[in-house]
Amino acid sequence: MEIYPPLSGIGGGASLAPFAPAGLDDDLFDFDKLKLVDKPENSMNSLDLPQSLKECEGYLTKLPLKPPNVDQKNPTTVVDMVNIMTNPCAAALFDKRGDTLEKEHTFANDASRSEGVPSGLYDYSTSELMKDQLSLARRKTSHIAAPLMFGHVVLPGCISFYKKDGRTYAVGEGRWLLPNPKASWCCRNVSLDQDVIAPSKTQVLIIRILKGEVGLVMEQGVEKLLDVGSHVYNSGTVSLVGKKQYANDQYFSHGRYHYLRVPRGKLAKVWAEVVKDGVRSLVPRLLGQGEHYIDSNMFKYEYGLVDESDPYIHHGSVHIIRVAKGSVAKAMHNTKPRLLGMGDHIVESTQFEFIGTESIISNLCIVHETITILRVPLGKIALAWKDNEPVFIDEPGLYEFDSPDFEFVEYKNADERLIQLGAKKIVLVHTGSVGVTYDGGILKILPNGRHIINSSNHIFHSFLSTQEKSLRLVTLSENEKFARKSTIGRGSGAPIGLSSTAIEECDLTVCETRDLVKVGLRADVFYSIEDPEKCLNKIDSEELEDLVRETAVSTLTNIVRSTTLNEIAQSKHVTAGSPDVSTVPVFEEIGDRGGNPPPSAPMRMFFDKAHDDFLSKLHDDFMSRYGVSVSNIRIESFKIMDEELSESISKHALTTAQIENEMANLEGKSLISTTEERTAAEVKNIAAEADALALKTEADASNQRKIDGAKADAEALKIAAAAKADAEAEAILAKAKAEAEAIRLRAAAEAQRAEMLSQTQLGEQESLLGLYANMVVSSNQGVEKVVYLDPSVNKESPFALGSLENLNRDLHALTQIGVAAGEGSKAPHQ
User: Fold this and answer.
1) For the sheet containing 167-171, what is the strand order?
2) For helices 761-779 and 643-757, what crossing angle results, to 10°?
3) CB neighbours (10 Å) of residue 238?
4) What is the pLDDT of residues 771-815, one digit of tens each?
5) E strands present in 53-123
6) What domain of life does the UniProt record list for this protein's source (predicted)?
């Protein structure tokens, strides 16, 4: 087995090295450098084949045409030749004479041929043969010129025939008698202006061959070809076969004689006999342009011409294959496959078979029996079997193999996610997915990247997406699950044959609220696979979607069942946890089915609550059990399934909308009126501001003058006031000093008095009584009216009149305070 690597040292025929060349060599895909593609020989050309019959038996340079034996311009020669030909030996003598004249080139040119034989043939002074034969013929004739009005008249341009003793004789223009009783007229006044004259019941045959024609006759069973001119026979052994025109007949044959004319650019397929080393054989020939002549009974022409430019010409053992640029020809030679490259290939062999051509531009793989040529472009991978082993060829280049153990399978794009042949696999895992494989029955997860697997026990199962998916929450039966899967394959998520309303409702999750109102929620749950191995070990990947849907529907149903319709209606957002989803307002507060008024206290929005409750129940559970992250739930809208209740709410909403519309119209009108009044007021303000600005300017000027005068007066007053203030301040200071001194002296005296009074009990009581009296006086200041109160009833009132009893009690209390204070002051000294 021959295996040739790619050109320019790209690599082996079964290389799996990654291909990313910066630039490709121009010779990398050059078919001319492949060893299994035959190149034409430099000297090989279709013109080198024998395109003539020179080496063939019976080759002729021209046809052996028999020259005419009469001068068609002279009718007398026709009559003479008819009479001469009654002698059986005369024909042979004249044929011999004609051959001699032809060799002497007496009438070799076309002009003389078209006019008949030259006059030298009938020149009695030079042609002894003509003299002798004519003399002999005249002795046998029986016609004589008729006198007066007797005899038979032969018209000009005509000839008449008579018979005597079984021979046919002719007479030309004139009046003739047949004195011999054995002679009788058999055919009278036959016009010489005919191409063929063959009188009935005679042996005479006169043939006129025009220019561009050839006559075909049989003389005693021998084929003869007649040249241009008139030919006279009177033996009865000559028959006319026909006439051929060179212009109309490309090929004609007469017995062993063959004529073939091949136009320019054509080839004729013929069979001819050749003798080589004493052995005769019939060989094929392709004759080129020109006229070809041959005298052979073995010659055969296969009707139909072929173009010299045909890509394949086949005739017998001769094969001409013209392979155009960009193609390769397939053939079998001696039971071996061959590939022929660009150029002309000429093969002469009976063991050669042409299969066909194939484009090397449009075909990346050319297979011919055991020969395989692969053209691996950039970005392709060739898959093949070599010695019963899978082979991946990914390096760009040309690869050629000649082995029955090599079998090409197909090409794959290098960016395909899975390329597999037999036990060999290339798995390309994209970001956002993983590959699921089983190595000996054990689950193996393939991360992102390109993986090559060579083990037959390592089986690729599928790709598993780890990207986030959205799933519409609907409750499906088993049949509906199957129908949905089939419709998803057709590109539609809804079953066929349902109305638009049914299709819309089939996407709703129908739940009952706490107050037993059926509502339909259009919700989507978002999930992704975080731990593929844990997920696949727990559940089939095809059942994961159903598991998420059913669990999510059950959870959402429980959440709705614990919520009243009024609580759902409180939400102004149809979704929670999805900031990119637009908010859709739903109807405002409505009373519950028990007639209770809607709650007025702020409450948590239902959709936010449903979102948080949903994720808190599913996220951690799915993550720990299946390795699946339930990341979000999006509730698009909800619908009250009770049509009467829904219609009632819709009417209420419509009425509310109408009222809001009217209020908006009134608000618009009010805004217009307010704007008009504001505009008028602004106009008046602008005018008033202009007037005020003028008055202000005038007043500013007047005020400035007054200010300047006032500043002067104020400055004078300021100086006088400053002097007066200084004097008054000095007087006040002196007075204050005197008062302060008096106070100090009074305080010192009081302090001395208090010290002296404190030394006796009576002094203490007197001091306390003074304080008490001052307190009563102070408390009654500002009192204009006094209500009399019995001191015995309200002893605690500050308006009560003092009494000895009260005084005694108060003094006793004050004494106790003083004693306590005194004891407290004495304690430290003890």
Assistant:
1) 167-171, 158-164, 184-191
2) 140
3) 22
4) 677 777 777 777 676 665 565 655 555 555 555 556 666 666 656
5) 59-60, 65-66
6) Eukaryota
List the beta bridge partners of residue 170: 161
- Distance between CA 24 and CA 680 in Å, rounded? 84
- Residues 792 and 812: their CA atoms lie apart, in Å, by 19
Q: Can you read off the two tokens belonging to residue 346?
A: 């000429």
Span 624-650, pLDDT tens digits: 999 999 988 888 877 787 777 767 777
Single pTM value for the model: 0.56
Greatest Cα pair distance in the chain: 234
Position 409 scores a pLDDT of 93
Tokens at residue 195, please? 């191409």
Indicate the SS3 state at residue 221.
coil
Helix (H, G, I), strand (E, B) or coil at 278: coil
Strand-pair partners of 241: none
Q: Closest Cα partner for 652 from 587, 591, 593?
A: 587
Q: Which helix (H) or strand (E) holds 281?
A: strand 279-287
Superfamily of domain 469-641: Band 7 domain (3.30.479.30)
Contact 217, 238 (CB under 8 A): yes
Specify whether the CB–CB gap between 272 and 301 falls below 8 A: no
Q: Token pair for residue 212? A: 């561009």
Question: Hunting for tokens 């193999």 — which residue is that?
Answer: 401
Cα three-residue angle 453-456-460, rounded to 5 degrees: 60
Task: Report domain extents, the chain.
Answer: 2-18+21-43+263-409, 59-249, 424-465, 469-641, 761-776+786-826
Q: How far is CA 293 from CA 52, 107, 229, 667, in A?
A: 9, 21, 21, 117
Structural tokens at position 422: 């037999």
Structure tokens at 820: 């306590």
Measured between alpha carbons, how far is residue 28 from residues 204, 275, 398 in Å? 82, 51, 7
Using CB atoms within 10 Å of the CB of residue 720, give its burial: 0 to 12 exposed, 13 to 18 middle, 19+ buried: exposed
